[in-house]
Amino acid sequence: MNTLLNKALLLQNTRALVCAASSVQSQVLTTQMPLGLLLTNRQYRSMPTHGIGKYRHLLPKALPKKKKDRVQAKQIKAATATEFGVFNVCVSGYDMTLVEHYSQYIHNLCNHLDIKADESYALPTKSTEVMVMQEQGTKMYVDAVLKTHERVVQISEMKATLLPILMEVVLKNQPEGVQLCVKQHTEVDFQSRFKTRPELEGLLAKINN
Amino acid sequence: MAAPFTRVCRPLWRIITTTTLNKGARNISSSRQQWSAQNVKTAVAASPWALHGAVCLQRLPVVSQDRSPIEEEFMELMHQMELERSLLSDHELRLLEDAARMSRKQEEDYDSDEEDEDYRDKEIVTAQDLEDTWEQKLKQFQPAPRSQGVDKKDMGSSERCLADSLILLVKKDVGSQKLWLLPQIQWQMGETLRQTAERALASLPGADLKATFLGNAPCGFYKYKYPKDIQKEDSVGAKVFFFKAVLSSHKHLPLEKNSFAWVKKDELQDFLKPEYLKQVRRFIMAL
């Protein structure tokens, strides 16, 4: 009798527990339940509302944040008999509006003529101090600060027959006060865009010495 | 003719690897390798057409073109809009501060210790003084004249019409008559057509012109037949290939008026024959 009562009490207790835990949908209790008393709230796949409330699959895939890779130097294409490789058109001058507008003009011209302009970047501004010697005395004082701006349009794989036409148009529309320079792109040009790291270089020198 | 064309195309890669063109304020200099003459293919059948290489030498515009009235008005409008939208610069702020300080000084209960620490330097040289000194300097500056004062009709000078691009024409006797045409010379065996064009420029009598050639490909072509009495079996006429070049240095002695001329595109019709003009006009850009 006692054992029966105990069992009944045990069963009642467990049932209470299951009822309390059904809202939590704990799978642990269900496995511990003896057969005949399976009270689960898990929805079956044929149920129309199966998976209602899922939203994770609708969000865009958030890739794990990776650290910025070191910018790799692109392979500089070599020139062939009929095409140029990679060359830079550098525009420099003191007046920033003129320099920028001229470089934009060159870029738009290349787009219009179906010439591939790989990159279009700016080099850091260089400041030049103009120092004037005083009339009486040897001291020099700062008269003006001139800033030289430089913009580069990088062109790759251009047909050689098109160059005279492009150069003529570009030269005829060159504004006053702006210098134009067309030169080949080298590794040195690419590396000069990066900042130097003096501590690293110092340590490397120490290691080598 | 196939032979000269291959010679035109092949040395391209050698040019590209060693060329650096620098164009600053129209001072153009370039360094190129002198490529050696290639082996002549002797197994070429002689064609009845003689080959000539010609150069279209251009003096680029030195100053920008003048604005039309509409452009002037628009420029004024844009300047005014930019001025109205802009903020005050450092210098203008300093002017206002100085003016405020002066007005404060005139009051009776003025206490100079209440001013900022760094105003003492500004008191000696005010912003207005700086502006006056700058204006004085500006008055001393003389910009270069927009036209060199050369008469527009003086065809021999390369300083005329600084806002347009000019082309060099040469008076040459072809056959029995004297004609105005672009400098040309006959092609010789063993040289590229571009070398021919360079030779044509260098062999001009009395003119020391330094030029930069733009590319190896010719820009134009003209074909003409000799008059009937000169025509033989193996010389029917001549084919002329034009190459574009840009004048490098600025200071030139004026050239002989009777044999040289610097002309604009719209003046070409006064000098060239109609057939020749039709072909030449196709590759000359008047920008």
TrEMBL record, chain A:
Keywords: Mitochondrion, Ribonucleoprotein, Ribosomal protein, Transit peptide. GO terms for cellular component: mitochondrial inner membrane; mitochondrial ribosome; ribonucleoprotein complex. Gene3D superfamilies: Ribosomal protein S10 domain (3.30.70.600). SUPFAM superfamilies: Ribosomal protein S10. Pfam families: Ribosomal_S10. Belongs to the mitochondrion-specific ribosomal protein mL48 family. The keyword Iron-sulfur does not apply. This is Large ribosomal subunit protein mL48. SMART domains: Ribosomal_S10 (SM01403). It is found in: Mitochondrion. It comes from the Eukaryota. Signal peptide: none annotated.
From TrEMBL, chain B:
Belongs to the mitochondrion-specific ribosomal protein mL46 family. It comes from Cirrhinus molitorella (mud carp). Keywords: Mitochondrion, Ribonucleoprotein, Ribosomal protein, Transit peptide. This is Large ribosomal subunit protein mL46. It is found in: Mitochondrion. Residues 49-143 form the Large ribosomal subunit protein mL46 N-terminal domain. Pfam families: MRP-L46. InterPro entries: NUDIX_hydrolase-like_dom_sf, Ribosomal_mL46, Ribosomal_mL46_N, Ribosomal_mL46_NUDIX. Its main location: mitochondrion. One of its GO terms (molecular function) is structural constituent of ribosome. GO terms for cellular component: mitochondrial inner membrane; mitochondrial large ribosomal subunit.
